[in-house]
Amino acid sequence: MNAFISVVGQDAAVNLLQSAIAKQQIAPAYLFVGPSGIGKSLTAQAFIEALFCHGLSEADALVTKQRLRDRNHPDVLWIEPTYSHQGQRLTAAEAAEAGLKRKTPPQIAISQIRDLNPFLGRPPLWANRSLVAIDQAQTMAEAAANALLKTLEEPGKATIILIAPSVSSLLPTIISRCAVVPFYRLGTEAMAKVLKRQAYGNLLERPEILALAQGSPGEAIAAWEQMQAIPPNLLEKLATPPQTWRSALELAKDVDKILDTEAQLWLIDYLQQSYWQKNYPVPLLQALETARRQLLSYANPRLVWEVMLMGMCA
Questions:
Q1: Contacts 24+ apart (CB under 8 A), 124-129
Q2: What is the pLDDT of residue 101?
Q3: Taking phi first (over 0 means left), then psi (-120 to 50 degrees means alpha), and beta for anything else, what does residue 161 get?
Q4: Residue 241 three-state SS
Q5: Among 35, 146, 216, 241, which residue has the least CB neighbours within 10 Å?
Q6: What is the domain extent for residue 304?
Q7: The whole model's pTM is what?
């Protein structure tokens, strides 16, 4: 079976990767680049499956596919942003499961990059190469990025896949060592196909969700789920800029108390789209963008919202 069968709307990327496998011309490092929620991680999983199953018997391929899906293949290391909690590193999903409310977005720590050394230092056990996938690579701090650069210079018998939203989000020295594979936002037909496949066909009738997603099924689903988690009265209060400093301070307090930083970042996206559709002045949209950058820079969330909302009152 074609490992890429579940990838929709990314024919150029799939053709490039299939050709590399067929010719056995696999690059030491790839950069899968494009907006979130359009299939980059799914394609990375499919690429690993196709690469590892190439030339195997049907029985061995079935075992390999199952191990890959269970994420317990000895020659694959999947790295994603984490939180540090009581000496442990938790992914965003694990933190949510544990009921942890975090004040900063998850990040790929230097310790995670250092874990590559022992993994890549041993020969692959089952496959003919080791494979590392680094999801949301743009969340690496500078020290982690520099540590990765050293690994990219001598990856050994391995291939490293970086997954990021844009080329500009990574160090130029890292980009120069990768084969860049671009991914694009989905068209209307492909978008509908993915949403229906994921049982979210109802979102096709929500123009505000589709406008926010801009051709990203993953973003559409995340937006819908996030919207359900935000109290309707809070969204209603933020539908228009506050009129007084007092109401601005109260709103900032509510946002910080109710929402974690990831939800706050989504809320800023939602407000940008909403305010733009209402033809609000450009300075309001710029204030939201400034707040987004500050949250991503790990500034105090409540202070960010206070400054932004009070500025809207001026």
A1: 124/74, 124/75, 124/157, 124/158, 125/74, 125/75, 126/52, 126/64, 126/73, 126/74, 126/75, 127/51, 127/52, 127/73, 127/75, 128/157, 129/26, 129/51, 129/75, 129/157, 129/158, 129/159
A2: 67
A3: beta
A4: coil
A5: 146
A6: 188-313
A7: 0.82
- Rounded Cα–Cα distance for residues 114 and 143 (Å): 11
What average pLDDT does this structure show over 147-158?
88
* 151 and 114, same domain (yes or no): yes
Residue 39, sorted as left (phi over 0), alpha (psi -120 to 50) or beta, turns out to be left
CA dihedral angle for residue 83, residue 87, residue 88, residue 89, rounded to 10 degrees: 30
Q: How far apart are CA 201 and CA 221, in angstroms?
A: 10
The β-bridge relationship of strands 29-33 and 179-182 is: parallel
- State the total domains in the chain: 2
- Could you give the CA distance from residue 87 to residue 85 in angstroms, rounded to a whole number? 5
* 247 and 101 within one domain: no
Spell out the residues 6+ positions from residue 298 whose beta carbon is closer than 8 angstroms to its own.
104, 105
The pLDDT of residue 96 = 73
Average pLDDT score over the chain: 91
C-alpha to C-alpha distances, 208 to 71, 167, 274, 276, nearest whole angstrom: 36, 28, 8, 12
